[in-house]
Write a structure and sequence with these properties.
Layout: E1 8-17, E2 27-35, E3 40-45, H1 49-55, H2 61-76, H3 87-94, E4 102-104, E5 108-112, H4 115-126
């Protein structure tokens, strides 16, 4: 009898560009995903500058890209007070509700045997 691969519980949130928080309009630009048991956290951004400029011609994308680098730095666990936290704590910080142009969806749960493949599938379906 062949054993089934171990499935891991994970959470993910879509990273969004929201130029005007009052209007609550946004463009999906990335994904952040975490598995607490595996101490695994991954984030990726696929910023389509042309799409953003069509959506918001006055967007300051240079400043926004600096915000994104800070977001990704925390996700990677780079040296900083927040970056030194455990993966699940960094995920909670990254997905906290905020009133800013860089936001995330509410976290969604799932279960998978292959975190990297699931991340790629979600990224393709929700962002690209």
């Amino acid at each position: 009898m062949q054993s089934q691969p171990e499935k891991h519980l994970y959470e993910y949130a879509v990273v969004r560009y929201c130029p005007n928080v009052e209007r609550e309009e946004f463009v999906n630009i990335g994904l952040v995903m975490m598995c607490k048991r595996r101490r695994w956290l991954r984030a990726e951004i696929a910023l389509d500058r042309n799409r953003i400029m069509a959506f918001t011609p006055q967007a300051d994308l240079d400043s926004f890209e600096k915000q994104l680098e800070g977001f990704l730095s925390v996700a990677r666990g780079d040296r900083s007070p927040i970056g030194s936290l455990e993966a699940h704590e960094r995920f909670r910080w990254l997905t906290a509700v905020r009133s800013a142009s860089l936001t995330t969806s509410r976290p969604h749960p799932g279960k998978t045997a292959d975190l990297d493949t699931t991340f790629a599938t979600l990224m393709d379906a929700l962002v690209r």
